[in-house]
Amino acid sequence: MRKITVTAVLMLLSLFAAPAFAAPFKVFVAKINSTGVKNSDEMQTTIQTLLASRLSSEKIQVVEKASDADAVIHGTYISIGKIFSLDAIAKTAEGEVIARTFVQGKNEDELIPAVGSLAEKLTAELLNLSVSMTTALTSKKENKEETPKTDLIINNEIKKAAVGEFIKPEIPVATANIGWLSQRLDGASNLMASGRKFSDGSREMFLADAHRLTCYKLEQGKDLKLVNSTILENTEKIISLDTMERDGGVDIYLTVIRSGELASQVWFLKDDKLTQSARGLGYYFRTNRINGGEKKLYIQAMGRTEDFYGEVAEAARNGADIIPGKKIRMPRHGNIYSFSQFKDLSGNVFTVVINPDGYLVVYDQNLSEIWRSNDKFGGSELYFKKDDDANMRITGETSRWIFMNQRIQITAKGELLVGKNDGFWVLGNSRSYKSGAVYCLVWNGSSLEEKWHTRATQNYMPDYYLDESENELFLLQTVQRPGIKTEGASSLSIKKVE
Amino acid sequence: MNIKKTVAIATAVGALGALSVPAMALENEFHGMYRLRGMMTNFENAGVANTAVVPATSVPVVDANGNIVVKNTAAKAATTALKQDARTTTLLEQRLRLQYTAKASDDLKLVTHFEVDSTWGDAAYANGRGVGGGMAADSVNLETKNVYLDYNCPLTGANVKVGIQGASDTYKGIFFTDDVAGIFASKKIGEVKATAGFSRLYDYAGAAPLGQNKSDLYLLDAKLSVSKDITVGGAYYFLRDNQANVAASNAINIHVIGANAAVKAGIVSADAFLAYQDGTEFTLAGRDLSAWAGQFAVKANLDKAGTVHANVLYTSGGKATDKDAKAWQSLNSSSVSNANHNVSSNAYYDANMLLLMRSKWNMDSDKSVISTTNNSNHGVTLLAAGYDAKISDKLGASANIGYAMASQKDGADSGSIGTELNIQVDYKLFSNLTASFQGAFVVLGDGMNDDSATARLLAGMGAAKSADNPYLAGFMMNYTF
């Protein structure tokens, strides 16, 4: 009996909704931005025309001026290799995003059908919205003083999952899909760091794989240009790459493991020349903006039995001499790579650590745990090994594996960024991640709350970096893993954060 | 479906959901290993591990070689493994290890560790450990190595491991290294890490333990990190072995006390230890134990040239006629499934020997010329050196040489046991899978060719007159995760 009642109510509701389709929904299709394609200008116009044509129907009217439209469609066309993605958002005149959708294709032959699919998806979303807007408008006219709660619920219900490059779960905020993707880079890089920025808008970028440090110059809209490169010995493995500007050049700190011991190196890049400043240093290095402040050099040592010994300390360098400075007490699971610090609005300092299981743990000023995430973050395939003959009987291995994790970056605003990789095969020390994303979290006084996260990358994301001054997020991806006959390959992409 | 049923189902689902909440917090962690080892050798025999000579007496306290054989309830036949015209054999063995850890939180986890060993062609449709490699396979052969709780005590902050677990002394295993049932608590106080533990090695009532005749091990261990490059430590072990039909007042009591240190200076790292054993009521009534051992190891990291390392090990030996027993004592366990085996529960893997001393790569064919550091009461003096090279990112190689002699030749003309030369080449097929080729050759020393058969027992297993020099050539696939 109840089922019949519910069905009858739904049918009645649909009858009431029908008049809403009477008036066509007016849209204006703006120029489609395209990235990573040849003949970019031509492609923008072509896709714009195609989309307008496919959207046009009895229920949706495509108008010629944005001012005449109920909604303006903005789109992007991004091509990565052969794969492309068409993304579209619909905004009201007030700039509110009312619909988002996207389609993907494997090659250019699928572009025209993809535009059709995109138009179908948009049409469905806009018509649903049209119903709710009309209903809300009608209700408002009928009773201006009472807010129609049911309409608000419907409005929330019909909001699809956000599909922009930055997904904001709470309040949708306009985002841009402006992106840049590098050419395919030889070698499966594990690490990334930025260098100097120049007046012409170009900048230096550094990548490192297990044995090689490569310096590139990045000019806007162009491919990465190789500046210099050096290859370390087979016995040496790079586990960390950090940079610090000095004397018109860049100090490059490479944390290196050799035969299970630290044997770190410092290089200096100036005038495109790469010179070694020091080698065989017994420290882990990291440059970090703790509390979002000034970039400083930090060090930690390795013990005879502990992988990370003692406290993390600020440091200065004089040639091959490392001079330790102010020490920072580490909470549980805290080490030079797993920790960072942020301040709340009152200026209280909190330490945050990504623990070995991938959970974010926040500690107060007394290093007592006050919050722990329910979701896992981090995930890295980069590791180093230490002799562990004592446990050979148990593990079957002469060495134990120590995995590096994704680092935590704190912005000047106190926001916390952390990478997260998802894997199809993560079992013990056997790790193979398939995609990654960067999450932005904010401390709300009692817990870290997600502000946004990027859409998952197509590949394993070994490293990321946010350039706060430009609001640009750099994502390093492994597009091909190294094998017996190949060194693998990487790509670097930049996403604009808005 | 009526409303009552709907409500009942919803309630049941809700209850299940509530019950499953704690499980949601559980981290499932898996580790494991698969190793295949093929050998062409005139020495190793699968399933005949570390054969030691045991006299035919029903209540041995210490075997004829001076090894403390815990749970030695059956007489064991003497075997001679080093033979003249020793036949070359080919063996293929495999080992699977699976470790599952149920991690409830950072402070509590249950660790389980299982093993399946088989030698190709051994047996099928069988019930028991170490088989299942015969045609048709289908054997019940799962071994449980470890089951223990690992938790951080909320009251004391100490880390506690309780259950059946792997344990080793701080002397690189020359006294004991094996799986044991026990409880071990450790806590870091400042730069000192202290450990206290107890282990019940055996209850001599066997499958129906009575808690009367038993072998218990107690330990105290402390290590101080003086700086990032220096650690010093001390350890005390007490073994009380009260075997069946032996009065408590006549039980074996062994005290082991020692000190250890490790240091790194530039490219060189080194470690050393010194340990002394004291005990009562040994093989001869009223005889006390007074033995010692020392070790020094050094490793130099030669940058791109690779790594060189060297080791010296000394364990004292003694004579049956000594007023006090002077031979260093090491623990053995006894295999229930094969009464002819005493399995060594001690080792010195640091020497990187493949035949002369126990090899860290051995599985069921865990045989070596010197199978225990007690070495039939003769003790061991070992000098070893090696070189490790990393030729490319995937290719590595190592070479080792070692010379061993009895610390107490006990009437033999020479104490020389032998010199081993071995090489190993490793190629990393994937980050977790390494293919290795091994070769080892031992030139037996004069002591092993003595006219006296007793003298040829310088190494525990003994040797025939003019025994062939042992050799081994093999390959290995090692996958770990």
What Rg of chain A is obtained from the alpha carbons, in whole angstroms? 26 Å
- In helices, the fraction of residues of chain B equals under 10%
**The CATH C-level class name of the largest domain in chain A:** Mainly Beta
SSE arrangement of chain B, N to C: HEEEEEEEEEEEEEEEEEEEEE
Tell me the β content of chain A.
Answer: over 45%
* Radius of gyration of chain B, taken over Cα atoms and rounded to an integer in Å: 25 Å
Assembly state of the chains shown: heterodimer
Uncertain parts of chain B: 13-24, 47-61, 71-80, 336-341
| Binned strand content of chain B | over 45%
How many DSSP-defined strands of chain A? Answer: 34
CATH topology label of the largest domain in chain A: Neuraminidase
Strand order of the largest sheet of chain A: 2-1-3-4-5
Based on secondary structure, the structural category of chain B is mainly beta
User: For this structure, what is the CATH class of chain B?
Assistant: Mainly Beta
CATH architecture of chain B: Beta Barrel
Shape by Cα distribution of chain B: globular
CATH architecture of the largest domain in chain A: 6 Propeller
Number of helices of chain B: 1
Count of alpha and pi helical runs of chain A: 5
